[in-house]
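Exercise 7b. Backbone tokens:
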């Protein structure tokens, strides 16, 4: 049987979908090999959130063909969805597959000489989240579960609604069954993912919500640890915050997109909140869940961003108890409203502002990690390194290194933090 290699760029949704494609291909008898090995078919699951990720996709195509010039290169994902003709014309590309068509990857690969080189439908017409299904997960301790897809927000800078379509939710019973399924396989943690996770359930009949799903999982203790992905600030209601504060299974970790700390910039972005509202929500969250890990996205150099507006963003982040900062240098995406805006910021300025934000993020992360020296954390052991250290993940998203641990992985331990590391903390097992 043919050898297939898959490479994935971008978000956790793409990771989930690549895992599902891998599972489907394995069931059909394809031999799955690492991307840097010889393969008959290379599948590249792309991202298009920035021009940089488009370039990385093209680099992976060239890399695959260098490895095996006779291989079939199949390009799918968001870059393929929004620019199928451009991708089709790249040297060596055999097939371009849209996001909705990922569920048919087995049938598409079975056809060695397809009549159509581009199989990409109009995703804006997609109304169902049904598609790829995943019964198992390659990682042995944490599993990602997609419960929502698409986005209706259409922020002015964002290409994602054009790549992923309208917001649509996995049916409530199916989402809850997905959590149970992974728990039954022995996973200790399930990560709920979606493009616009806070919109989960709004399109269902009857309507539901992310909070309702979390409450149902909590009621039956469906899994020991349940982690929520990115949630918009205006969807972090008091009810959701209070539920998380009292939950025995939902991890104290939130990723909250900020994008800018200046109201004028937020308005041009089409974001539906102010800097003051964001500050208030984060304060409310930390008051209820003091040890929570809060990550934020921020865009540097949005069109028209002045030094003063950028300064407002820096000052807001400095005030907030942020543990991680994901910095996006603004990238002009054709087809978005921001691409047509006046006042496009010079690239050198964007790079300088991005670097300043990254340095700020590193300082904030270090300050957060230092808070836990001498304290105990519940850590899910995940892997062992060549240096003899075992590595795990705390409930509040800190990578924890543990020397001399020879016990089982996929076990939650109580660890006392002894020092910080460049990317997490190091600790000792209690007792």
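Sequence design result:
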């Amino acid at each position: 049987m043919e050898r297939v290699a898959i490479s994935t760029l971008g978000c956790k949704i793409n990771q989930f979908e690549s895992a599902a494609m891998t599972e489907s291909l394995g069931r059909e008898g394809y031999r799955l090999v690492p991307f840097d090995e010889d393969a008959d078919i290379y599948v590249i699951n792309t991202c298009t959130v920035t021009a940089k990720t488009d370039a990385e996709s093209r680099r992976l195509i060239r890399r695959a063909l260098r490895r095996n010039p006779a291989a079939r290169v199949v390009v799918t994902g968001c870059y393929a969805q929004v620019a199928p003709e451009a991708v089709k014309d790249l040297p060596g590309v055999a097939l371009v597959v849209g996001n909705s068509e990922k569920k048919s990857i087995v049938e598409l690969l079975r056809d060695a000489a397809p009549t159509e080189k581009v199989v990409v439908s109009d995703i804006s017409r997609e109304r169902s989240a049904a598609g790829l299904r995943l019964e198992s997960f390659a990682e042995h301790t944490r599993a990602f579960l997609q419960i929502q897809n698409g986005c209706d927000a259409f922020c002015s800078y964002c290409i994602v609604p054009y790549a992923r379509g309208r917001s649509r939710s996995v049916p409530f019973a199916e989402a809850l069954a997905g959590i149970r399924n992974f728990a039954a396989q022995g996973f200790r943690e399930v990560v709920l993912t979606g493009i616009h996770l806070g919109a989960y359930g709004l399109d269902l009949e009857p309507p539901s919500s992310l909070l309702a799903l979390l409450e149902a999982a909590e009621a039956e203790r469906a899994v020991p640890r349940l982690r929520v992905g990115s949630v918009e600030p205006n969807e972090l209601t008091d009810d959701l915050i209070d539920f998380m504060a009292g939950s025995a299974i939902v991890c104290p970790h939130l990723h909250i997109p900020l994008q800018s700390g200046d109201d004028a910039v937020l308005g041009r972005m089409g974001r539906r909140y102010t800097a003051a509202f964001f500050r208030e929500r984060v304060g409310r969250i930390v008051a209820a869940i003091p040890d929570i890990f809060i990550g934020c996205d921020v865009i540097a150099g949005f069109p028209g961003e002045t030094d003063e507006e950028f300064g407002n963003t820096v000052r807001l982040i400095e005030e907030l108890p942020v543990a991680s900062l994901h910095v996006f240098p603004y990238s002009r995406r054709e087809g978005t409203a921001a691409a047509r805006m006046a006042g496009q910021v010079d690239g050198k300025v964007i790079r300088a502002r991005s670097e300043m934000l990254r340095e700020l993020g590193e300082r904030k992360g270090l300050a957060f990690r230092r808070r836990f020296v001498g304290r105990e954390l519940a850590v899910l052991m995940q892997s062992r390194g060549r240096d003899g250290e075992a590595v795990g993940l705390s409930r509040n998203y800190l990578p924890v290194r543990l020397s001399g641990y020879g016990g089982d992985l996929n076990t939650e331990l109580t660890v006392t933090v002894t020092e910080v590391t460049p990317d997490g903390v190091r600790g000792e097992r209690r007792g």
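Instructor comment: The chain is about 35% helix and 25% strand. The chain has three domains: 3-121, 142-370, 376-429.
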